[in-house]
User: Fold this.
Amino acid sequence: MQIVRTREELAAALRVAERPIGLVPTMGALHSGHAALIAAARAASGTVVVSIYVNPRQFASGTDVAAYPRDLDADAALARTAGADLIFAPDDATIYPPGETPPAIDPGPLAVRLEGAARPGHFAGVATVVTILFDLVTPDAAWFGEKDAQQLRVVEALAQRRGGPAIHRVPTVRDADGLALSSRNVRLTPSGRATALAIPRALQAATSAHASGATTAGEIRAAALAELRKGPALNLDYLDIAESATLAPIADEQPLATAVSGELLITIAAVVDGVRLIDACTLPVAN
Ligand code: PAF
Assistant:
């Protein structure tokens, strides 16, 4: 496995790379969730490129991008074991060359609600860096996790507008206690982690309510909220039920059978110990 840092080194490595090229974009602090993305890319690609870049443009101003965990040696070891061929670990000047205006990428209507509303500018930053990575790496396909459900849909729409690459969804990887893997979990105290477990339990309650025959979004929401209220209070930002394809919200009284996507997306965002956690699941709808 090779590690490259500059545009020139990347271009040289890609000139001899076997196609199809699969890209797994990351911000580092790799964990088993990233390993699942890399393994999925490995199974379908001649060359697997993992990008590791903490993108300042997707952080709110004032948040400490510099404090984001960085450990290239540990990340390289995990990526190699999971099946990566090439790590692209650029610095800020490589992604955003001084004097060059980055492409102005509109993340589109899928970016307006949920994380888009909670974190203004976040998806514009994601769409910009993903566009730059797609342009530099020229992947045939890229892999994204289902935990970041809205990001996944924003990137799918972005790739569709560009005419590629193909975007593959990879299911959320969870710890044994159910918490979705996230680089942020290390910042949870033991009691915060126990509180955070209400999030996957609420998604499970939503899934069970749906399986038991709930016919409205309100019934699903009530089941999830009951679970969220059982333990110590977490700071709930949203519990959202939406059309999976368009992220259009589904009103509590709306019969689920009228959901046109054929699938609901349930997303939860909450803050525990000052750590913003998000999680999601989809539920099929027969209509
Ligand atoms: O999901 C992430 O880690 C980031 O948002 C991404 C896609 C690598 C863009 O910086």
